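During the no-cost extension, the postdoctoral fellow (Dr. R.K.) reprocessed legacy sequence entries with the updated structure-token encoder. One reprocessed record is reproduced below for audit purposes.
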Amino acid sequence: MRRYGRTAVYGVLLGLATAAVAEAVRPRGGTTLLLDWGEVRRTAGSRLESATLDRAALAAAARGYRSLADKLEKPLLNFVGPLPKGATMPAFEALDREGWLDLNLGILRRVVDPVLETGRMPNSLIVEVGRAGVNRYVAFMLAFLARRVLGQYDPQLLGAEPIGGEGLYLVETNVAEWQRHANLPDDDLRRWLILHEMTHAWQFAAHPWLRP
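Re-encoded structure tokens follow.
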């Protein structure tokens, strides 16, 4: 009798599990993407401390970057070699953490959106759960990087076609925070970061085979 009772319980549990799986995969009409950029932006933005700087501070930082870059370009090119005819170094821009986040969301979307569109999936509960997990993973990754990246060169490699000029960036929020915590000299730190990013720009300009 006990064995029959146990079998009945197992049968009920199996039936419930089957019903749950069927409900999870049941199409709900329409299709959806496996990533919600709006949710990624909201989640990542909520995890940023000192996320923004005012426009005046960013503009002043950018002017300082460009002044240093102007002084460093000639010594750099004398050492590594000239730029190809017609090529120029992009002008530096200053970003805060939200600015870096928005910039890189745009870069990611250029390459990921076409893939997402070709892989649309039928709406279902299991797809919603999977999308929530992917959203959080991408958001946490971007938020982590937004709090730590110091500089960036965007060579416009991702996506079917470039949507603008190449870019050189320093994340002033992170640079200033590192400078304070490590007690580093102001101009020397930024000079080193600017040289680092300008070298990347030169590499891609002088060696076209690096581009797809």
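Strands lie at 31-32, 92-95, 121-122, 151-154, 167-171. The longest strand covers residues 167-171. The remaining legacy entries will be reprocessed before the final report is submitted.
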